[in-house]
Design a protein that fits this description.
One of its GO terms (molecular function) is protein-containing complex binding. The chain has about 400 residues and is α/β, with parallel strands linked by helices. It is built from twelve helices and 13 strands. The strands form four sheets. Strands 3-2-1-4-5-6-11 form a seven-stranded parallel β-sheet, with helices on both faces. Strands 7-10 form a two-stranded parallel ribbon. The protein has a two-stranded parallel ribbon with strand order 8-13. α2 (about 65-75) crosses α8 (about 250-265), α4 packs across α5 and α5 (about 140-160) runs parallel beside α6 (about 185-200). The structure holds NADP nicotinamide-adenine-dinucleotide phosphate.
Length: about 400
Amino acid sequence: MAAVIFTGAQLLKQQGGFIGIAYVKTANYSTESKAYNLSALKRGTGGRSSFNGIVATVFGCGGFIGRYVCNRLGKNGSQLILPYRGDPYDVMRLKVCGDLGQVYFHPFDLRDEESIEKVCRYSNVVINLIGRDWETRNFSFDDVHVKGARLLAKVAKRSGVERFIHLSALNAEETPEAVILKGGSKFLASKWRGEQAVLEEFPEATIFRPADVYGQEDRFLRYYGHIWRRQATYLPLWKKGEETIKQPVFVSDLASGIMAALKDSDTAGKVYQAVGPKRYYLSELVDWFFRVMRKDKDWGYWRYDMRYDPIFQIRVTLTEKLRVGFPIGNLHWERVEREHVTDVVHSEVPTLEDLGVALTHMEDQVPWELKPYTYGLYQGLVDLEEPYTPPAPPTPVA
Ligand SMILES: NC(=O)c1ccc[n+]([C@@H]2O[C@H](COP(=O)([O-])OP(=O)(O)OC[C@H]3O[C@@H](n4cnc5c(N)ncnc54)[C@H](OP(=O)(O)O)[C@@H]3O)[C@@H](O)[C@H]2O)c1
């Protein structure tokens, strides 16, 4: 495929609104006016330097899960079309996911059908990782999870894409369980409607419903590690977290599941639950995270019931209302609501294990992920090289 060409409008790329759309419309990543069947050019043995016949457009590539998915795709010789919005520097580092000439970038707008069509026309696989945990001035949950997902599925179908993978969320329900917010999580309800919209446009789509996903730069472990989630050394949880059960999944396992689904055409039209191997009470899990971070009882850690702390509740409201861009520490009511929804795993719906993924256990991975949050690490108060007995792992729910 010819080199990436950003025709003319480089100077306009930072602009929003009318000028921004003009930029998207005039940009092109190929000099070819005709769509070739690139997958027919398959060659090599399937490693990074071969071409395995997959040309994948990854929407939401610049996000947390996107980085892992792109790495896996590049590693096995897929060609990557990476649509992005905003600054191209944010996604530029994904260039090294694949071999030379295998990774292409293209600006797009989730509301602009033409730009979506441009990035789907050469692909046989489309992966939709677009999602947002909070609503913004420009995009409601429905805009992102329902209308946006529907448009991607519709254009992919029209462009002759063979496989469409869509990321929803575990506990997505028409009327999700309400823990704190009246009517429950709007995020989860919109994810449920998004699944229906995608299946209406692309009935052979494969849907993944991930539980909380942890890994590098996640929004699960880092959420609890963040100073803004605590009241000094005290941690407020709804009903002390003793009535919420969670089953978090490791991001690499989710990426492995997506890769396995791509290889297996039997997964078309099916829904998969992406959950970890064990279930834990939220209270058990969070206590363990703090023990791992060496922020234990001696440090002042104490978990209490959020219901009796109006100051924390006011802080969540103010963080949500006064935010510029994103909420500090990911603290907002939608997040707090979802945090306390128990993970429901339906026995009749397949999981990552049905895709042959050997699931990672939290006790094997989390201590490494939480290392940067170790108490006193940057003040020289602890030496990670010194012998240390790791704290007891959390007790899973029987
Ligand atoms: N991470 C989890 O624990 C978890 C759990 C359950 C479900 N999921 C779902 O899995 C998917 C991927 O999650 P993630 O953790 O990788 O999310 P993420 O890190 O927040 O990344 C989301 C991606 O979506 C893009 N995006 C958001 N709104 C957009 C819009 N209006 N127009 C264009 N692009 C937009 C973002 O682009 P920008 O960078 O330009 O904003 C980013 O690339 C999402 O659908 C998420 O809801 C995640």
